[in-house]
Amino acid sequence: MPARVPSDQLQISIDPQFNYDSQLQDLRNDVKKIKQLAYAIEDERKLQGADINTLEEYMEKAQMMLKKASRRLTAVSKQSRSFLMLWVVLFGLGLFFVV
């Protein structure tokens, strides 16, 4: 029976056949892949951020154009109402003089 180890220590037995170099190389390769993935994610985030900023600018421009068009339509609407009223008055006067 093995000797008892105090509770604050850890005893590890490693197989002598274990290949440290191979495992270490595999870990390095995995770290490189994760690093490349992180860089790819960062690049994609930057591209999407730029696209979102461009879309926001286009939306602001479109909103300003819509406001401008709305003001023009309001002015045209007021003008057409007054023009229509002129035709109604002329028609009424014409009818009054004819009858």
From TrEMBL:
Record keyword Transcription present: no
T-SNARE coiled-coil homology domain mapped to chain residues: 21-76
Database matches in InterPro entries: T_SNARE_dom (IPR000727)
Cellular component per GO, a single term: cytoplasm
GO BP terms in the entry: protein transport
Gene3D superfamilies per UniProt: 1.20.5.110
Coiled-coil annotated residue ranges, if any: 24-79
Transmembrane segments: 81-98
Cell location: Membrane
Name of the protein: Qc-SNARE protein, SFT1 family
